[in-house]
Write a structure and sequence with these properties.
Blueprint lengths: L4 E7 L5 H11 L1 E8 L2 E9 H7 L10 E5 L2 E12 L6 E8 L6 E10 L5 H4 L4 E4 L3 E6 L8 E4 L8 E3 L10 E2 H4 L7 E6 L14
Parallel strand pairs: 1-4, 2-6, 7-10
Antiparallel strand pairs: 1-3, 2-3, 4-5, 5-6, 7-9, 8-13, 9-12, 11-13
Protein backbone atom coordinates (compact mmCIF):
# COMPACT_ATOMS: atom_id res chain seq x y z
CA UNK A 1 0.00 0.00 0.00
CA UNK A 2 1.49 3.29 -1.08
CA UNK A 3 0.12 5.67 1.53
CA UNK A 4 1.38 5.87 5.10
CA UNK A 5 -0.79 7.53 7.71
CA UNK A 6 0.58 8.60 11.07
CA UNK A 7 -1.16 10.63 13.75
CA UNK A 8 0.00 11.87 17.13
CA UNK A 9 -2.27 11.27 20.09
CA UNK A 10 -2.23 11.74 23.84
CA UNK A 11 -3.87 9.67 26.55
CA UNK A 12 -6.74 11.50 28.25
CA UNK A 13 -7.86 10.84 31.80
CA UNK A 14 -10.61 13.47 31.96
CA UNK A 15 -13.62 11.52 30.66
CA UNK A 16 -17.34 12.13 30.19
CA UNK A 17 -19.45 14.31 27.90
CA UNK A 18 -18.47 17.54 29.60
CA UNK A 19 -14.77 16.73 29.31
CA UNK A 20 -15.18 15.85 25.64
CA UNK A 21 -16.94 19.15 24.95
CA UNK A 22 -14.18 21.10 26.65
CA UNK A 23 -11.56 19.15 24.74
CA UNK A 24 -13.17 19.98 21.41
CA UNK A 25 -13.95 23.60 22.25
CA UNK A 26 -10.86 24.77 24.13
CA UNK A 27 -8.07 22.57 22.81
CA UNK A 28 -9.22 21.88 19.24
CA UNK A 29 -8.80 18.17 19.91
CA UNK A 30 -10.91 15.17 18.93
CA UNK A 31 -11.75 12.64 21.66
CA UNK A 32 -11.15 9.07 20.51
CA UNK A 33 -10.69 5.53 21.76
CA UNK A 34 -8.41 2.60 20.86
CA UNK A 35 -9.60 -0.95 21.58
CA UNK A 36 -9.03 -4.56 20.59
CA UNK A 37 -6.40 -7.31 20.63
CA UNK A 38 -7.29 -8.29 24.20
CA UNK A 39 -5.75 -5.09 25.56
CA UNK A 40 -7.76 -2.62 27.68
CA UNK A 41 -9.28 0.25 25.74
CA UNK A 42 -7.44 3.56 25.90
CA UNK A 43 -9.09 6.98 25.68
CA UNK A 44 -7.04 9.41 23.62
CA UNK A 45 -7.22 12.81 21.98
CA UNK A 46 -5.99 13.79 18.51
CA UNK A 47 -5.50 17.29 17.07
CA UNK A 48 -8.58 18.09 15.01
CA UNK A 49 -6.59 19.61 12.16
CA UNK A 50 -4.51 16.44 11.80
CA UNK A 51 -7.37 13.96 11.59
CA UNK A 52 -9.40 16.31 9.39
CA UNK A 53 -6.50 16.52 6.92
CA UNK A 54 -6.07 12.72 6.92
CA UNK A 55 -9.77 12.19 6.22
CA UNK A 56 -9.52 14.09 2.93
CA UNK A 57 -7.70 11.03 1.57
CA UNK A 58 -10.08 8.15 0.77
CA UNK A 59 -7.37 5.63 1.59
CA UNK A 60 -7.40 6.68 5.26
CA UNK A 61 -10.64 4.75 5.77
CA UNK A 62 -9.14 1.45 4.61
CA UNK A 63 -5.53 1.73 5.64
CA UNK A 64 -3.36 0.67 8.53
CA UNK A 65 -2.76 3.80 10.59
CA UNK A 66 0.10 4.37 13.03
CA UNK A 67 -1.09 6.24 16.11
CA UNK A 68 1.76 7.60 18.22
CA UNK A 69 0.14 7.58 21.65
CA UNK A 70 2.38 9.62 23.95
CA UNK A 71 5.21 8.54 21.67
CA UNK A 72 4.32 4.82 21.63
CA UNK A 73 3.24 3.53 18.17
CA UNK A 74 -0.02 1.59 17.82
CA UNK A 75 -1.13 -0.07 14.56
CA UNK A 76 -4.86 0.54 14.07
CA UNK A 77 -7.69 0.89 11.57
CA UNK A 78 -10.52 3.38 11.89
CA UNK A 79 -13.82 1.68 12.78
CA UNK A 80 -16.24 4.53 13.47
CA UNK A 81 -16.36 8.26 13.01
CA UNK A 82 -18.86 10.71 14.46
CA UNK A 83 -19.29 14.03 12.66
CA UNK A 84 -21.12 17.18 13.72
CA UNK A 85 -24.55 17.25 12.03
CA UNK A 86 -24.19 20.84 10.84
CA UNK A 87 -20.52 21.83 11.06
CA UNK A 88 -17.39 20.48 9.35
CA UNK A 89 -16.19 19.01 12.61
CA UNK A 90 -15.16 15.55 13.79
CA UNK A 91 -16.78 14.76 17.14
CA UNK A 92 -15.32 11.35 18.01
CA UNK A 93 -13.30 8.52 16.46
CA UNK A 94 -12.98 4.81 17.24
CA UNK A 95 -9.81 2.92 16.32
CA UNK A 96 -9.26 -0.85 16.44
CA UNK A 97 -5.83 -2.34 17.07
CA UNK A 98 -4.52 -4.76 14.47
CA UNK A 99 -2.07 -7.63 14.58
CA UNK A 100 -0.08 -8.78 11.56
CA UNK A 101 -1.19 -12.40 11.99
CA UNK A 102 -4.90 -11.80 12.69
CA UNK A 103 -7.56 -11.07 10.05
CA UNK A 104 -9.48 -7.81 10.29
CA UNK A 105 -12.83 -6.74 8.86
CA UNK A 106 -12.82 -3.42 7.01
CA UNK A 107 -15.17 -1.57 4.66
CA UNK A 108 -13.18 -0.87 1.49
CA UNK A 109 -14.28 1.65 -1.19
CA UNK A 110 -15.40 0.37 -4.58
CA UNK A 111 -13.97 2.14 -7.63
CA UNK A 112 -16.19 1.74 -10.70
CA UNK A 113 -14.11 1.87 -13.88
CA UNK A 114 -14.99 2.10 -17.58
CA UNK A 115 -18.38 3.68 -16.96
CA UNK A 116 -18.00 5.51 -20.28
CA UNK A 117 -17.51 2.15 -22.06
CA UNK A 118 -20.39 0.35 -20.35
CA UNK A 119 -22.34 -1.56 -23.07
CA UNK A 120 -25.68 -1.09 -21.40
CA UNK A 121 -25.23 2.69 -21.43
CA UNK A 122 -23.26 3.19 -24.63
CA UNK A 123 -25.37 0.85 -26.78
CA UNK A 124 -28.60 0.42 -24.85
CA UNK A 125 -29.01 3.93 -23.46
CA UNK A 126 -29.47 2.64 -19.90
CA UNK A 127 -28.53 4.21 -16.58
CA UNK A 128 -25.93 2.91 -14.13
CA UNK A 129 -27.38 2.24 -10.68
CA UNK A 130 -24.85 1.71 -7.87
CA UNK A 131 -26.24 -0.26 -4.95
CA UNK A 132 -22.98 -0.37 -2.99
CA UNK A 133 -20.12 2.09 -2.69
CA UNK A 134 -18.01 -0.03 -0.36
CA UNK A 135 -17.52 -3.69 0.42
CA UNK A 136 -16.98 -5.40 3.77
CA UNK A 137 -13.89 -7.57 3.45
CA UNK A 138 -11.78 -9.78 5.69
CA UNK A 139 -8.01 -10.10 5.32
CA UNK A 140 -4.70 -9.89 7.12
CA UNK A 141 -3.51 -6.28 7.66
CA UNK A 142 -0.71 -6.61 5.10
CA UNK A 143 -3.21 -7.72 2.43
CA UNK A 144 -5.58 -4.80 2.98
CA UNK A 145 -6.36 -3.05 -0.35
CA UNK A 146 -7.04 0.67 -0.49
CA UNK A 147 -9.94 0.06 -2.89
CA UNK A 148 -11.45 -2.62 -5.12
CA UNK A 149 -12.13 -2.06 -8.81
CA UNK A 150 -15.39 -3.02 -10.51
CA UNK A 151 -15.15 -3.04 -14.31
CA UNK A 152 -18.38 -1.94 -15.99
CA UNK A 153 -17.29 -2.22 -19.63
CA UNK A 154 -19.12 -5.52 -20.34
CA UNK A 155 -22.21 -4.79 -18.25
CA UNK A 156 -25.26 -4.95 -20.52
CA UNK A 157 -28.73 -3.49 -20.37
CA UNK A 158 -30.74 -4.96 -17.51
CA UNK A 159 -27.71 -6.81 -16.14
CA UNK A 160 -26.10 -6.58 -12.73
CA UNK A 161 -22.75 -7.35 -11.14
CA UNK A 162 -23.03 -9.22 -7.85
CA UNK A 163 -20.50 -9.48 -5.03
CA UNK A 164 -19.45 -12.97 -6.15
CA UNK A 165 -18.50 -11.57 -9.57
CA UNK A 166 -16.01 -9.06 -8.21
CA UNK A 167 -12.39 -10.11 -8.53
CA UNK A 168 -10.87 -9.72 -5.08
CA UNK A 169 -7.12 -9.41 -4.45
CA UNK A 170 -5.21 -12.42 -3.14
CA UNK A 171 -5.83 -13.03 0.55
CA UNK A 172 -9.06 -10.98 0.59
CA UNK A 173 -12.54 -12.44 1.09
CA UNK A 174 -16.03 -10.97 1.18
CA UNK A 175 -17.74 -10.85 4.57
CA UNK A 176 -21.16 -10.93 2.91
CA UNK A 177 -20.43 -14.10 0.92
CA UNK A 178 -19.23 -15.81 4.09
CA UNK A 179 -22.84 -15.57 5.28
CA UNK A 180 -24.09 -17.67 2.35
CA UNK A 181 -25.49 -17.42 -1.17
CA UNK A 182 -28.44 -15.30 -0.02
CA UNK A 183 -26.00 -12.49 0.77
CA UNK A 184 -24.66 -12.29 -2.81
CA UNK A 185 -26.14 -8.83 -3.28
CA UNK A 186 -26.13 -6.71 -6.40
CA UNK A 187 -23.33 -4.15 -6.45
CA UNK A 188 -24.18 -2.26 -9.64
CA UNK A 189 -26.68 -2.64 -12.47
CA UNK A 190 -27.79 -0.98 -15.68
CA UNK A 191 -31.40 0.12 -15.68
CA UNK A 192 -33.17 0.01 -19.04
CA UNK A 193 -34.80 3.22 -20.31
CA UNK A 194 -38.49 3.48 -19.52
CA UNK A 195 -40.51 1.35 -21.95
CA UNK A 196 -37.48 -0.59 -23.23
CA UNK A 197 -37.17 -4.36 -22.71
CA UNK A 198 -34.22 -5.61 -20.70
CA UNK A 199 -32.62 -8.99 -19.98
CA UNK A 200 -34.54 -9.14 -16.71
CA UNK A 201 -37.86 -8.03 -18.20
CA UNK A 202 -38.06 -9.34 -21.81
CA UNK A 203 -41.84 -8.80 -21.94
CA UNK A 204 -41.61 -5.11 -21.08
CA UNK A 205 -42.41 -2.71 -23.90
Amino acid sequence: MSNAFELNATVRADLGKGASRRLRRLAEMVPAIIYGEGIPAVNISIPHKDIQKALTNEAFYSHIITLHVDGKPEQVVIKALQRHPAKPRIMHADFQRVSADRAIVVAVPLHFINEDKCKGVKIGGGSIIKALNELQISCLPNDLPEYIEVDLSDLGLGEAIHISQIKLPKGVSSVDLAHGHDSDNSVVSVLAPRGIASADNPEKK
